[in-house]
């Protein structure tokens, strides 16, 4: 039987970790996904994941673990797939089905593999974020850059939205001006700054918002430049978590406060009116956003609320209207209930709770609050595997840390229980 150290450095385990990162990153919809046939990508991801997991079962069975907790997660995934993905309740969604089938092959992986995969993902996000910041600075100073203009059919044909793709970064424009006007909102390689900001939030949450780590401070800083209300709400949760965990304002939180003051100083000095225009027009959208309720409700129009009110009396509250009925704004939580009903909400909650139930109460509260905020703010993102995989990653990383890892600054400094991690 291999030791934990041998498992961590085993080549098949490393391949499984890389494959896990590719699956998770691909599910986040980087722009390269727009350019690759979806059927081909899904086939390759499913094949690589199956090969990875089955190879581990054959040659390194210690790298697989299917305990009671993971069995419950698999049961909850099956319930989710039956309800949302098969024609038994709604309609068959083959892409959705394959993604969750891939998730089922990932669940049995040893927590060490997921932990290793997370270290790769975090480094990838830090690298891409630095690149995005460099392009943002160059664009701010109007330095000419080569780019490829791409119009995404789902959003650009009527609105005039277009992407300027620079390679390892892109910018979102409406016509010839940055989306929302004023300063650009950093997107990195993703289609929307809000999506990118939420991903950063969860990358930081998996690391428990350790703001004494340099890489996390980089991610936090660049997340602020997405000008995403969801990001600011999620960061507020993260900072509150650190304050409660440390029973006071620790060094990490002080670092964050210094960065916020520094950013405000720089963007006011150099950004001027552009900064204030972006803040007022994009963050608050000319509406009052005083609390979490306002943050969620500002994505629902009065028409949406009226249609939803009629739906409550329609007799379809239990199972909803399905995928084909989309007369109201589905980004708000009402859209999710309108399409999939109360049963859909309960099944989704069952999947979330089955994943995160084994962590300590404070961390459980943090993860559940963050996921619920995303679900309420951008309910359509709960259809994909992304946030379930991120929650699963958080639990696996937390489990490994409790057993083996002690952090110092931005590196793994001390190991215990015979696990030597480089």
Automatic annotation (TrEMBL):
The chain crosses the membrane at residues 12-34, 40-60, 72-90, 96-113, 120-138, 217-244, 256-277, 336-356, 361-377. Keywords: Membrane, Transmembrane, Transmembrane helix. This is O-antigen ligase domain-containing protein. It comes from Bacteroides stercoris.
């Amino acid at each position: 039987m291999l030791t934990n150290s041998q498992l961590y450095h085993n080549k098949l385990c490393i391949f499984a970790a890389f494959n896990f990162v590719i699956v998770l990153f691909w599910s986040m919809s980087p722009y390269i996904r727009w350019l690759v046939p979806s059927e081909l990508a899904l086939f390759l991801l499913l094949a690589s994941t199956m090969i990875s997991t089955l190879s581990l079962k054959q040659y390194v069975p210690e790298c697989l673990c299917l305990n009671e907790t993971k069995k419950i997660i698999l049961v909850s995934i099956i319930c989710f797939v039956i309800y949302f993905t098969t024609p038994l309740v709604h309609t068959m969604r083959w892409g959705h089905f394959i993604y969750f089938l891939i998730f089922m092959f990932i669940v049995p992986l040893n927590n060490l593999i997921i932990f290793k995969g997370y270290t790769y993902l975090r480094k990838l996000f830090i690298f891409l974020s630095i690149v995005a910041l460099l392009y943002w600075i160059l664009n701010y100073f109007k330095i000419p850059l080569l780019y490829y203009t791409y119009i995404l059919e789902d959003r650009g044909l009527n609105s005039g939205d277009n992407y300027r793709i620079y390679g390892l970064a892109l910018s979102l424009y409406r016509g010839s001006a940055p989306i929302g006007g004023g300063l650009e909102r950093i997107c990195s390689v993703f289609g929307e700054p809000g999506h990118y900001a939420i991903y950063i939030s969860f990358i930081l949450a998996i690391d428990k918002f350790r703001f004494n780590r340099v890489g996390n401070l980089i991610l936090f800083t660049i997340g602020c430049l997405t000008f995403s209300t969801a990001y600011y709400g999620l960061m507020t949760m993260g900072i509150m978590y650190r304050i409660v965990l440390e029973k006071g304002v620790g060094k990490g939180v002080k670092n964050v406060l210094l960065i916020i003051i520094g950013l405000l100083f720089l963007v006011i000095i150099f950004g001027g009116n552009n900064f204030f225009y972006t803040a007022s027009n994009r963050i608050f959208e000319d509406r009052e956003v005083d609390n979490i309720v306002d943050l969620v409700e500002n994505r629902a129009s009065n028409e949406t609320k009226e249609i939803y009110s009629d739906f409550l009396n329609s007799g379809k509250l239990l199972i909803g209207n399905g995928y084909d009925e989309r007369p109201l704004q589905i980004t708000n939580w009402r859209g999710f209930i309108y399409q999939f009903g109360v049963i859909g909400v309960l099944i989704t909650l069952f999947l979330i709770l089955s994943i995160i139930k084994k962590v300590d109460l404070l961390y459980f509260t943090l993860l559940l609050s963050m996921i619920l905020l995303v679900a309420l703010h951008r309910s359509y993102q709960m259809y994909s595997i992304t946030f379930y995989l991120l929650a699963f990653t958080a639990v696996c990383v937390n489990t490994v840390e409790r057993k083996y890892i002690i952090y110092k600054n931005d590196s793994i400094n001390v190991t215990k229980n015979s696990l030597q991690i480089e």
